[in-house]
Structures are given as structure tokens and as C-alpha cells.
């Protein structure tokens, strides 16, 4: 456990909590969390997750813009339904990304856990995109991904980060419940 990991955990927890609460402040906080985890994942050779943080940075800027435009008159961020065909296409893209990234990192890097790291990174991008698009289903995918992340971080000895991801599972459940009650049908 390093000082970097401690700060990254605190900032990440705050960012996810603000996202679940549908607060615009989540975006700059989550951007800072990405930068901190980029460095941490570089240090422990989880390269797919390191690159994921850079891609999350781009997705965060996108989400910030989408959320700013998707507010109700009260200022609350609107939740949008996710239709079956776009959901299936996004999950297929996640699977293709997992295989592509996994193959590349297993053949061309010294990645510690190339296949699982790549799959989690790819499906995290799908979940992040769904979050940016304000789909409550994003929380269900985050729950699934975070469960596996907990195990990966335990294996890598990142116990504090594993604890963060366990807490993020709880936050995702709360986020799903909150967004379900707010979703416009």
C-alpha cells in the first residue's frame, strides 16, 4: 500500500459516490482519480488498466458534456433507458475489445494478468460509456466488472484498491437503485 494508492482510493470513492448521486462534480473528481490510477497501474504493470485510465479521461470529458446537456429543469441529471439492440452491440464490442487487447498485451508486453486485465478494461469502457449516456444499466455492468476487479487486485497485492472496488460494488447497487427511481420511461 502506497501513499499514491491511498489518495487514489479516496478520490475514486468520492467520484463514484458523486456519480451515483448524479452530481456534476463527479466528472472533475473522476478525472483526477484516473490520473492517479494511471500512475499506480503503470507501477504494478497492469498496462491494460493503465491505458484504460487514459481512455476513461476521454470518456469523462464526453460524459461531462453529455450530462451538462441532459438536465431537467430542476438541474437534476436525467436518466435514459438502454434499448436491447444498442446494449447487445456494446457488449459485443466489449468482448471483441477484450480479445483484441488481451492478445496484444499477452504477446507484446510483460503484463502481469493480460487476459483478465484486458477483459475488465474493455467492459469497463462499455460501462463508462453507458454511464456517460446516463443509462441505469451501467450500474449492473459496473457491479459485474467490480466483483472480478476485487479478485484481480487481491492477486496483485493492491489490498486497498481491492477494498475500494468492494465498496464500489455497494455504491453501484445504490447508484442503480437511485437511477432506477429517477429513470424517465
UniProtKB/TrEMBL annotation:
The chain crosses the membrane at residues 6-25, 46-67, 87-105, 137-155, 162-179. The keyword Acyltransferase does not apply. It is a multi-pass membrane protein. It is found in: Cell membrane. It comes from the Bacteria. Keywords: Cell membrane, Membrane, Transmembrane, Transmembrane helix, Transport. Its main location: membrane. GO terms for cellular component: plasma membrane. GO terms for molecular function: nicotinamide riboside transmembrane transporter activity. Belongs to the nicotinamide ribonucleoside (NR) uptake permease (TC 4.B.1) family. NCBIfam families: NMN_trans_PnuC. Required for nicotinamide riboside transport across the inner membrane. This is Nicotinamide riboside transporter PnuC.
